[in-house]
Known about the structure:
The chain is α+β, with helices and mostly antiparallel strands. The chain is built from 4 helices and 21 strands.
Amino acid sequence: MNRDNRLGNLRLVFPLKFSLIMFVQLILQCSCSEDSMPPEIHISAFPMVGDTTIVFEFNGSKTMDDNTKLEGLFFRWDFQSDGIWDTDFGNNPVSVQRYYLPGIQKTTCEVKDCDGNVSSSFIEIYVLPTNPFVDTLIDSRDHQAYKIVKINQDWWMADNLNFGKWLPSEQEQLDNQIPEKYYLDDDSIRNKKIGGLYLWHEALNYSYGNGTKQGLCPPGWHIPSLLDWNKLLKNMDLWYAWNYFGKEGLSGLNINVGAAANRRFDKMNWEPQNHFFWSSDYQRLEFLNEAAPWVFYWGETWGSIGVRYLHVYYDGSDGLWSMGSNYASIRCIKNK
């Protein structure tokens, strides 16, 4: 046999071998017996709540079939559930979609096994629009203007409070009937837009106990409670909350604009990377006689957002005042 004939036979054999391998793989993905039961579909979406800037991921990888492994199942998707399939059947159980219209969006998935049995299911997600509830608050005490937004039926300040007399950081904020604040890095020009940084006692205007606390907020507004802060994240993926509440997020809240500071052994440490906001609630740690206020914090990494309390703020009654003081931003919420 000459060389050309041998090459010709090889060209014929290789495609046949490849086709045979693919056929064997398909056979292995199905059992030997025929099955009349359709696949049992399990689909999920991430996130379940998003906005028009988010790409949603739909996942059917937990779908099960008695006669076909996952690799042998075929998926197709109708992202508007309007009867028009947006994808062809394919082996990938994951698909993505972005929605440009707000509201409840219904997505249908159809799955076919190797015996031709077909079943379908759907999932609903909620797509939020740009927040239409935006207004301006004028503080009657000093006539400063603050952007405010309405979220979950609550009006929030979308700017940090900037009320009170500015102090250089070597002077401590005191209970002297004068509202006092620091600016990040002691820079009253460059960091004025970030707003003031306040001792927790100062933020509460030295008024403690349970109930709504105006603190240093404008009349008709108050320091958010632990419940107020947690309500922001209710039923919302943290990954999405990071996008929605962050800078230029569609909520308009801009909650990652803020700062923090702490004083340790009379040395001030500025924390521009930490965005802490005071709560009116605190936890009493009796074994140290420590008042540990709750803060809403915004970290540097995706999903690092939530409520926690600061351990090292001492109330002074046991002589440990010098061990530490914390300073954070203030966002106010409107009284109902």
